[in-house]
Specification:
Length: 274
């Protein structure tokens, strides 16, 4: 079956991360549907809004927005009514519910979640930590990590580290390579949560082949040999079985799903739960 495509206009007065995340989460609930995204970020003037509406007129579709300025919101909604396209204020219900519950009015400040406060600084430090501790580097300072991921090559260690870093968690990753011992520092860690990542051999081969194609390397190597990869996965599982680390199978898991599972484990780790 051919997928149905439609235009999806995402309008934000900040970076657009919120509207993108919510919109994609909603679209993902529909099979055989593909959204052609038009992202409009940092929309804070009437001139910018006119460009948005011109694009909507040229490519009619669904409009989703997270604008907080009352005048801009009104003009966008009126423009969409004239064009006869749906216009969805994504945060209105959430903000109204919080306002009623807390008994206070919202600030209506664009990009309030992106203030350069202590949490922002923590995220920057966590990203720097992930860079310095990628792929087994700087093992001597692993104790400074919140989370350490251990797994074979292409088991999503690095992207998961950076996803967690963006949430403010200092995350390192260490590769499991047959014939190469793990850094001894791993056995001496007291504070960090150490998590083993495993993956099905077939998916690993597919991911590695795509990687080799991207960098223009020969695909006929042991790196993607089915027998070698299968043994590599078995070796990693044997390594994990000798530890008390929790293990997550990332086969068919998105990075976000893997990170969510890790954060659940981390919360228990911090609380001292087994």
């Amino acid at each position: 079956m051919n997928s149905r495509t439609f235009h999806l206009h995402l309008v934000s007065d900040a970076t657009g991360e919120t509207v993108i995340t919510v919109a994609r989460g909603a679209v993902a609930q529909f099979s055989d549907v593909e959204a052609i995204e038009h992202l409009w970020s940092l929309v804070r003037s009437e001139k910018q809004l006119k460009r948005v509406l011109s694009s909507v007129a040229a490519n009619p579709g669904v409009v989703m927005f997270t604008l907080v300025d009352a005048e801009l919101r009104q003009k966008l909604q009126e423009g969409c009514r004239e064009l006869d396209v749906p216009c969805v204020p994504l945060l209105d219900t959430v903000i109204a519910t919080l306002s009623r519950y807390l008994g206070v009015e919202s600030q209506n400040l664009p990009g309030s979640q992106h203030v350069m406060d202590g949490h922002y600084i923590d995220r920057i430090e966590a990203v720097n930590f992930a860079v310095l501790h990628d792929d087994g580097q700087a093992a001597r300072s692993l104790e400074e990590a919140d989370i350490v991921l251990v797994g074979v090559s292409r088991s999503s260690k690095t992207p998961t580290c950076f996803y967690l870093a963006n949430r403010g968690f200092k995350t390192a990753n260490v590769p499991v390579v047959p014939g190469c011992p793990l850094p001894p520092e791993l056995d001496q860690l007291r504070s960090p949560l150490v998590v083993g990542l495993t993956c099905g051999a077939n998916q690993l081969i597919d991911i590695r082949r795509n990687r080799l194609r991207m960098i223009g390397q020969d695909e006929e190597t042991e790196y993607v040999d089915p027998a070698a990869v299968s043994e590599e996965v078995k070796h990693a599982r044997r390594v994990f079985s000798k530890t008390d680390w929790p293990v997550i199978d990332v086969t068919r898991r998105s990075i976000e799903e893997t990170a969510a599972a890790i954060l659940q484990l981390h919360a228990k780790h911090v609380d001292g739960d087994p």
